[in-house]
Amino acid sequence: MPAQSSNVELKRKAIPVENQGLPSAKRARKIVDSGEDSIPDDPNESNPPEWPTSPTALNTARSFLKRCASESGTKTLIIPDKDADGLCGGSIIYRTLLLLGHPPELLKVHVLAKGSNVHEVSERQAIAMYETKFIVVVDQGSRGQPVLLDGDDDTEVLIIDHHLSDEFPPRATVLSACHHEPVATSALLSYILCSPLHEAITSSCDWLACMGTIGDLGTSFKWERPFPDMKECFKKYTKKAMSEAVSLINAPRRTAKYDVISAWTALDAASCPQDVLSSKSPHVQRLLDARHQVNLEVERCSHSAPQFSSDGKVTLLRITSKAQVHPVVATRWAGSLKSKALEVVMVANDGYLPGKVNFSCRVARCAHARPTPTPNIIDLLRFYAERPLPFALASSPSTLETSNLKEPSRKTLRERLGDNFARGHKQASGGIVDTQEFEELCQAMEIGVKKDDAPRSSSKKKGMVQKNTLDRYFGGPSKA
Predict the structure, then answer these.
(1) In the prediction, which pLDDT does 20 show?
(2) How far apart are CA 421 and CA 431, in angstroms?
(3) Which of 6, 217, 312, 454 is the right S-S partner for 221, CB 3.0 to 4.6 Å?
(4) How far is CA 302 from CA 116, 170, 298, 352, in A?
């Protein structure tokens, strides 16, 4: 199947309200694909008045979905992110619109190209080709740029997201959880959004909400208030089956082939996690093959030697891979590396996109154990990028000569890093930047530079005699 920038039109079977005769799932090796830690909250505390976002925003978004389904002859395009959270959230929206009566032939799904985002010109042009009336963007991050090219005023856009942002596309309807702690995942936000719209949503989409949350927050996440009580869902489908399904759904987007459409198709055809895992599924072998490829690549790339910043807060590991394994490697190292000042583990991949460095950052586990507040990766990255000269690489002509880098422009490093820098979450961030700018960022962080605050002694102490000589060690010379 071709790469993922092509248009996708999917048909799905009817959604059953109840599932019977579910096959058991076999245990498979799981890729740990979460970079964010459990969100602490007080189980005895009553639900916040505005969680997972404001009631006004929820009601406005519900009205948007109702219009999508009710306006005769209009197309709706869903653009989900490529990971388990985004795909599960997109699937909830897709199933909800069908239940509300949206014609299947007018409901489209668009999967972004490898290394791209919804704001790239190429993607905006591809989206415009659908000639759709409504667009629902799920888990793609938010920026102050329009989803479509300027002039497409007739198209209405709904943004469903939880990534940290204070900027949103103009004229878009925004449903964001990023400023409502503890932050809900996009799949859970979609589930809470859609549940009141049809009586079948709760029973048919609860597992998707749980899988999306596991994909972002991990299997050890505690479902405590204000998160909804999903005990019955976990009892019905089991957390083990959901975790395995998440592992399979996440694998295709990490391969060099970037076979995201296989993950979406498998999820779309399923009515429970066990359907994703079933040997009877026509899609499961592609998911298993993808996971095997990713596991091998993660193992190959997990042995790079870490280098620390001069302040000890960041450790950098460099890898070269056509697969998107840098987030997984970062998560793995974040759980094992320990240092007195370490806060963030950064893994930089210079082989994923030509001329670019894709990097992922995770908060080190040792940083969570300290009494100080949990580090904010986005703030820390911006701090380094905004450091004044002489920290920047441009301040040292000799460094430019030895590194074969071009003379940078008069723009600041932060400006040249662009909009794809320091995106995501406070505890799981990263970016896609040009190679030269990334090397300048490393220079600003002083990667590999050791600072010794202890003064060096100018001379050896007088009167000191070395006692552990070789003669003494081997018993000294024999006596006559």
Answers:
(1) 34
(2) 4
(3) 217
(4) 25, 42, 6, 16
In 3D space, the residue among 391, 390, 396 whose CA is nearest the CA of residue 447 turns out to be 391
Task: Write down the CATH number for the domain with range 7-296.
Answer: 3.90.1640.30
Considering only CA atoms, which of 101, 97, 125 is closest in space to residue 113? 125
Element (H, E) at 329: helix 326-334
Position 129 scores a pLDDT of 93
- Pairing, β 356-363 against β 428-434: antiparallel
Q: Determine the Cα–Cα distance for residues 148 and 127; give it in Å rounded to an integer.
A: 7
- Sign of the dihedral defined by the CA atoms of residues 460, 464, 468, 470, in that order: positive
**Crossing angle of helices 84-99/55-70, nearest 10°?**
60
pTM of the model: 0.79
Which ranges in the chain are annotated with CATH 3.10.310.40?
307-445
Q: Where in the chain is the domain with CATH 3.90.1640.30?
A: 7-296
Helix, strand, coil share of the chain (percent; to 5)? 35, 10, 50
What CATH fold (topology level) applies to the domain 307-445? Diaminopimelate Epimerase; Chain A, domain 1 (3.10.310)
pLDDT along the chain (480 residues), means of 10: 40 36 34 35 50 97 98 95 98 99 98 92 92 95 75 85 88 94 97 98 98 94 95 97 98 96 97 96 95 98 95 97 97 94 98 97 95 95 84 42 52 91 92 96 93 50 49 44
Amino acid 72 reads: S
